[in-house]
Write a structure and sequence with these properties.
31% strand, three-stranded antiparallel β-sheet, 131 residues, Mss4-like_sf, six-stranded antiparallel β-sheet, Metal Binding Protein, Guanine Nucleotide Exchange Factor, Chain A, mainly beta, Met_Sox_Rdtase_MsrB_dom
Length: 131
């Protein structure tokens, strides 16, 4: 079986155990560079910076994900919808609709620690897929 990227304790807490970062502490909350956000665990491209916006919620917010990159699953709390990487199943955060932040009316509230940023023009790492 293929091994995913090695994670530290904080990354594992969020990605494997569905934890969350404290609001306004993630490295990508106010990030504004142009490029692609990839899953920290498996390198799957999940969001493009064009779809990122400032919601004031304390976590990076996106109103769209890249095609076939994110899955929605009912959250254990029964109220929210969790979003996970479509390739590895790693926890990204939650998705909310009907808030009116953008014309798409969707907010993917994502933990910075679940992602890595690749600047535009830099090569994307190969996606690690389970065999």
């Amino acid at each position: 079986m293929t091994e995913y990227n090695e994670l530290n304790d904080s990354e594992r807490h969020v990605i494997h155990h569905k934890g969350t970062e404290y609001p306004h502490t993630g490295e990508y909350t106010d990030h504004e560079e142009y490029g692609t956000f990839i899953c920290r665990q498996c390198n799957m491209p999940i969001y493009h910076s064009e779809d990122k916006f400032h919601s004031g919620c304390g976590w990076p917010s996106f109103d769209e994900h890249l095609p076939d990159a994110v899955k929605r699953v009912p959250d254990a709390d029964g109220r929210r919808t969790e979003i996970v990487c479509a390739n590895c199943g790693g926890h990204l955060g939650h998705v909310f609709e009907g808030e009116g932040f953008t014309s798409k009316d969707t907010r993917h509230c994502v933990n910075s620690i679940s992602m890595r940023f690749i600047p535009e023009g830099a090569p994307l790492p190969e996606v690690i897929r389970r065999k």
